[in-house]
Amino acid sequence: MTSPIDAALAVTSRQELVAYLANLAEKARRGLVLVENPSTPDFVEASSAWLDGLDSFLHRYAEGVDPEIPSWSTIAMIFSAGLVYE
User: Which residues form the DUF7660 domain (predicted)?
Assistant: First the structure.
């Protein structure tokens, strides 16, 4: 089974991001992924907080990824983090 981090890092195109987000939404609906931030304001706030700490996250989990050059995988990680980051 692929971890959420690995799945997000594997996103390399717009089409893959579309599929990733559709899959993430379906898993959230079915209760297969943790959702700590069910309201839009909480989701956006959590996404902002996670993005603010992106340097630390990338250093730990995705060394070599430049936080100043966003990619499709960065966008995927922001959506995933918005669901659970507190």
Answer: 13-86
pLDDT in tens, 36-74: 999 999 999 999 999 999 999 888 888 888 889 989 999
Locus of tokens 């907080």: 49
Annotated domain spans of the chain: 4-84
Tokens of 62: 């995705």
Per-residue pLDDT at 18: 96
Q: What is the DSSP string of 1-48?
A: ---HHHHHHT--SHHHHHHHHHHHHHHHHTT-S--S--SHHHHHHHHH
Query: Model-level pTM greater than 0.90?
Result: no
Letter string b/e over residues 12-41, b meaning 16 or more CB atoms within 10 A of that residue's CB: eeeeebeebeeebeeeeeeeebeeebeeee
